[in-house]
Amino acid sequence: MELMLQGLGTCSAVDVVYILERGRHAVTGCEVDIEASRAETPPKVFTAIHLHFRISGNELKDAAVARAVKLSAEKYCSASIMLAKACTVTHSHEVVPAADGDNGLSA
């Protein structure tokens, strides 16, 4: 079950960064914290999942990050959309200024 959450976080993070970079925003980092609740009885499926994105970059606008997170959740991330049919999936975000000397994501 943990691998499913890791896949969800990765899928969503890739979408968010891609959307922001396509909009010519200088993204320097992306972290996703995931909290999930499961049913008490077998098969102990997820009942709620929350993803919190921490996006860093140079002069990132909160509205641009909010839009990218929403687009990922509602249109692009197939993992998020699939899981949302079985449980409640929520998202939040915060924008963090880039660290000194940090000018972009590295491969």
Can you offer a commentary on this structure?
- This protein has a three-stranded mixed sheet.
- The chain starts with a helix and ends in a 10-residue tail after the last strand.
- It has one domain (2-97): K homology (KH) domain (GMP Synthetase, Chain A, domain 3, 2-Layer Sandwich), CATH 3.30.300.20.
- The model has no long low-confidence stretch (mean pLDDT 94).
- It is α+β, with helices and mostly antiparallel strands and 107 residues long.
- It is 40% helix and 34% strand.
- Strand 1 and strand 2 (46-58) form a beta hairpin.
How would a textbook summarize the main sheet? 3 strands, mixed
Number of domains: 1
**E-strand count:** 3
Query: What sequence of helices (H) and strands (E) makes up the elements?
Result: HEEHHE
pLDDT average, as an integer? 94
Q: What proportion of the residues is helical, as a percent range?
A: 40-55%
N- to C-terminal distance: 28 Å
What's the CATH architecture name?
2-Layer Sandwich
Structural class, by secondary structure, is alpha+beta
- CATH homologous superfamily classification: K homology (KH) domain
Name of the CATH class: Alpha Beta
Residue stretches low in confidence (pLDDT < 50, at least 5 long) are: none
Please count the helical segments.
3
